[in-house]
Each structure stands twice: as structure tokens, then as C-alpha cells.
Amino acid sequence: MVMFSDKEEFKTAFKNQLEEKLGKTIDTASDFDTYRALGSLIREKINKDWLKTNQEYKTNKTKQVYYFSMEFLMGRLLGNNLLNLNVLSLVEEGLADLGLSLSELEKKESDAGLGNGGLGRLAACFLDSLASLELAGHGYGLRYRYGMFDQHIIDGKQVEFPDYWLTKEFIWEVRRPEDAIEVRFGGQVSSRRDKDGKLHFKYENYEPIQAVPYDVPVVGYHNDTVNTLRLWSAEPSVEDTMKKAEKEGEFGHFLTYKRSLESISDFLYPDDSTEDGKRLRLKQEYFLVSSGVQSIVRSFERLGLPWSSFPEKVALHINDTHPALVIPELMRILMDEKGIGWEEAWEITQASVSYTNHTTLSEALESWPVGLVRSLLPRIFMIINEINERFCQALWKTYPGDFSRIADLAIIADGQVKMAHLSIVGSHSINGVAKLHTDILKEREMKRFYNTFPERFNNKTNGITHRRWLMHANRPLSSLITEAIGDEWVQEPKQLNKLMERKDDLSFLDRLHEIKQENKVDFSNWIKDTQGISVDPDSIFDVHIKRLHGYKRQLLNALHIMHLYNELKSDPTLDIVPRTFFFGAKAAPSYHFAKKVIQLINRIASVVNNDPDVKDYIKVVFIPNYSVSIAERIIPSSNVSEQISMATKEASGTGNMKFMMNGALTLGTMDGANVEIHDLVGNDNIYIFGLRSEEVWDYYRNGSYSSKAVYENDERVRHTLDQLIHYSPFSRGETDFQEIYDALLTYNDEYFVLKDFASYLLAQKKVSQDYQRKRQWNLKSLVNISQSGIFSSDRTIQEYARDIWDLQRVKTLK
Ligand SMILES: *Cc1c(COP(=O)(O)O)cnc(C)c1O
Fold it and tell me: Domains of the chain (ranges plus CATH)?
């Protein structure tokens, strides 16, 4: 659809919106008002295409995929929507005529931070790709009242503040009370046989909760497709609350009751690396699943097709195991509400559901105590139990007498419901998120399941949307690319490899360098404005941004900086290439060790940045509140991308892909998708160091790693670690970092930080040397950009659509 025929039409529409909707004029409107007017105008304009897309799906009975995820880390939507709607320049110029700056208005939007990190951001990138590829795919999630916490650094430590993102209206959402669903918790189930011997289940004394959907349009790139992100919000059902209020005759009770129901969609659990098993979290999971599956079944029924064709029209995808209850929930609806028998319901369920595994960290694998599941979800528990019984019986037939195998694979064991097992048994496809990760699943973590169901396992290497992470985040680079190779790469990102034609074009390489330099200057100004720290745009921008976790080894980076500091202090004439180390990371509020690492990084920053002997050579900046918007700011101005996880622990990583696409060079271990980046760019264009996965497993097997031995044999390690606990500029004579010291030495360094210290130093030296040879560096950067197209989430989504979901591209009518 043509949204505005020209700039003038836009200006008129915008002014009307401001006056009619907000009762303001350009002179009296605040920046937030103008953002709201612009956003709501665009949202209204999207409506027509949104309606049309939905009608087409209905009329053509198009197969649709529903991507269930407890997290959607969307970030801001305005800029990306304008880009996808093909009105970015028009709006920008129109606003400029009115004396307004689009980029300033964009900043008024709060990040929709409904996710922790990689998993939630992946879901967001997938939505963009689905719509842009004209695939009928929607996101189903929760409308958390508080998203990812707001991180402040106070006295060098992380302090969490609630993220009040909804207090400023979220202009993109549309509340749809007419599509509300009732979700039921607790109560009792009884069964009776009818005269034909058929079992019927009666569910009583449950607690009903209204799930009200809020729909957010997901706009495809230049194609008129508008899919939906449906976010469910928990509300008391009006009728029930009235009854309750009358019964108890007291308004105070009513309010407490209302609050307790609403608490289901109150806040996002801020930990993505450990499973904390809280009752409210299980409620959230079932709330999402039940409202989602009920509403999907409702739409399917409107098509008037037989139940057997459900899997031909519906694909249910679960993003990790958090929504695994879609399996028993769909079974429940098909059997209890639609009267379908077990076998048929099971066939339909399995053929519809597919599952992505995101981790091999055992502490992150979900399991729920049987007692909790039984009391909170009695009918669902019965169904899980039956799935388990039948599965174990089938195993017994194939492996008679093999108790250990059956105990190993069972869905319910040791009083726990194992969500990964449920997900594998109940789906037709299980995928890992990078080649190495999928191999680890098949050969190690899920070996017995792989042997049982080899045809279900497959790899889908993650991706990122190049529209947000290159076209929108780095417009100058994006324009340069188009100047050089035309704009086909936008629709087909693999064509970025045409950039290799320019590898000998020195003036092109210089342009590439200038753009990076300009981005670095912009970013430096922003750092100066927001943090008051001056950084040198000519220094190497070395960036480590991701969740803070032991396995991601921010500590290794920090120890290296301490070592550099020591070297500079002992030899002030040392010839070192100036560097600025940037960090951005949130720690889960209960993850004590991770918070200590944040404190250490901030301590190092205060020492290094204030020491006249070193501050012109190295600087350390901890950017608070790492989020999608901050990632978009920093990645285009990065030279070095720190991807230094302990091999085997990072399933894929997607940060690594964003950096590569923006011309930063990866400094990393052979882990996750780094392996695939390495294979694409070759040894000369990446800095690989440290233990390989096989070596890590060897150490695990023979238990021969001793961090103390490293400490004793490497004077640099010893000196640095001692500075954590003995009097030093870093410890300031206090015991703040004793815990880090103990983790590394007393507890034998779980993540092999010290083992990889020496090789990390060497790799860092090589980075410094290479950076001085500008042309070669720029060429390496070019190679990285040119090979990054494969990491567009368009490629990933095409693979899911073809191999897992069996989705065809729909051509939307113009
Ligand atoms: C991409 C992204 C991540 C994931 O980063 P990794 O380096 O892959 O862990 C986390 N948080 C935000 C805000 C992101 O944009």
C-alpha cells in the first residue's frame, strides 16, 4: 500500500494527528507527544494491510505457524516499521521541514524489553523475517507489565530498577477483548464412563483467569504483509470478580484478588541461564500456552475442516521448553473438548509441534516437581502421565529389559516432569541452533533420544535480521554497500559476497574505514554525553556485550585488561596500540558471582581511566542497561567483537553475527556459530584462540585440569589474581573480589578462564599488530561483511519453513 503519496501529504496527516488526537500543535507538543502522534499515525495506516493479510490467510486457508516464546526482545519499533513500510526518508524529510528530527523522536520510544537476551532477540528477528518473506507466521507471548529490569550502576555495582515500559503508552498494541480466553488453574478432575465405555473428564473448582490478547502488527519489508505478535495479559474475569466481591462483601478482598490474578503477567523472569522452578513461572507458562492454543483451535474450527487436517493448517513451534505444555494442552482440547480419541489426538499433536533447543547447560534445563504440576494443572498432569506411560511402554518393546535407558528417557522421573523430554517425545522436529550445538545434542546431551528418533533431529543455525542490524542500525554502511553492488542484497543477503569484487579497490576500502571512523566518532560523543567519559575514536574499539555469565567469560577479558595495566605501569614506554574496552551486560539479580564480575569491570574502569600513566592507552567503559537499542548504537562502531565463551557452552550466539555484518572482527573461541564464521572467513580474518570442544571434553573425562598449576606456572596469572585479594589498586585492600579469586583457584575455575589466558593474550597481541596495518584490517573487515549474508534470519526462517513447518510463501494482493 502506498502510505503517503508524497511528503506534503505526510505533513498534513501528521499535523492533523497531533491536533485531533492529542490536541496539540507542533509548538506545544513535547517530544513524547510528537513521537506518539507519529507512531499512532503509522499504526493506523498499517491497519488496512493488517486486516487484508488476515483476511487472505483466512480465505486461502493458508497454513500458519505460531511461534510460542516466553520472550520477545523487540526493542523499538518505530524506525524499523518506517523502514519496512518504505517511508523512512519521506517521513524523515517531512519532519525536518517541520523542524523535527526523526532520530530524536525515535529515542522517545521505550524498548519493548520482553526478553532476557539471545533467545528473546532471536524470536524478534524471526518475526521480522517471517513477515518480510511473506510467510504466515505469528508470535505468541506474554504482555509483561514489567520487562527486563533497568540496570543502573551505583558505586560500581549493578542495581536493578523496574522497567516501567507500559506507563508510557505502548502505541503499537491493539487490545482485543473480544478474543479473550479463559484459562483454568487448580481444582479437581473427576472421570466417568458413559454407556459406550468412553471416558469423560469433569473439571471443577478451578480458578478461572481471563487472558486478553494485545496484538502488535509485524510489518514485512516492502511487501504489504502484516503478521501479528499476540501478547496475552492476565485479567480477572469481570463476572467472577463481581461474584467474588459480592460473596465476600468487601472491596478490599476484591482488590487483593484482582492483583493476585494479574500478577501472572506482571513480570519477566530476569534469568536466562538457570531454572528456578517458581510456581508463578509455571503459571505464566501455562497461561501463555493455554490461551494461545485455545485461540488457535478456535480459528482453525472456523475453517470448517476435519481435525485430521489440523497439522496441514497449523504449525506450533516452541522456543525452548518453556512453552512445552502446548503438547498436553492441545491433547486436552482435542480429547476433552472435541471428543477425539487418544491415538488421533496424539498424531495431530505430534505432527503440529516442533521444538528448538537452546542450551546444553544442565542448570538451565527445565523440570517441575510432580506435586506442583499435579496441583496447579491437574488435568494436564494426567495427560503428561499418560504420554509418559505410553512412551515408556513403547521403549520397553524396543529395548526389553533395558531399565537404565528407560529411566534415562522417561518424561517423569525422580518426582520431576522433564520438559525437554516432553518436548522431544511430543514433537516431530527438534533442532539445535548451530552446527556444533546440534552435533553436541546428537552425540552427547541427547544421544539416547537421537538414537531413538534420529529423523527428528536437525540443525538450524541462528540468524539476525539484516534490516534492523545493518540497514537501520548502520545506514551509512548500508548505503555504501548499495553503491558498490546495487541493492539486490537487501532481498537476498547472500549477495553481500559480491563485495569481494572490491577487495583490491583501495578507495573503497578507505570509504569503509571512514564510515567506521564516523560511527566511532558519533558513538564517542554519545559516551561523552551520557557517561562523561572521553574516549579516543582512533583507538581500537573492543566490545564485549551480552548477558553476564560465567561461561561467557567476561572475566577473561577483565583479567587481560588488568594484565595490560600492570605491563604499562611497569614499563611506561611500552609501545601499545591504544584501545577502548567496552562492556555491556546485565546479571540475573540472584547471580551473585556475575554481579561481582560487573563490580570488577567497573573497578578496573575507575582505576584505568583515572591513572595518568595509562589513560591515554587504555580505557574501559561499562555501558549500563545493555538492551537492543544500545546494541544498535554500539555494534556499528566496533572493531573487535569479543566472543570468548568456553567451548561447548555457547549454543550459537547471535551477537557474533551482528558484529560480523557490521565489519567487526571476531576474537573468539571455537564455539557456537563462531565455528561457522571461522569456516566462512578463514583463519586470516578471525582471531581464534583457546581450548576446542574436544579438549574441553578430554579435561572433563580425565579430570586433569588444575587451575592452581596455571597460577603457579604463569607469573602473569599469579600477579593478576593476587591483585584481586591482596592490597592493589583493584582490590583497594578490601575483600570484594575474594569470591572471584576463590572461583578461579579454590573451585578450580569451572570455565577454564586461566587455561585460556595465555592464548587469549597472544590473540589480543595479534589483534593490536594487525590493527596498525590499516589496509589489511579494512580488507578483513570487508571479508567479514561480504560473508555475513548467510547469517540473515531470512536464511534461517527459509530453512524452518521448508524443513520443519512446510510453509509456502503467500503472495499478498496489492
Ligand atoms: C543479540 C543480543 C543478545 C545476544 O547476544 P549474544 O552475544 O549472542 O549472547 C543479547 N541481548 C541483546 C540486547 C541483543 O541484541
Answer: 61-76+111-427 (3.40.50.2000), 479-692+751-797 (3.40.50.2000)
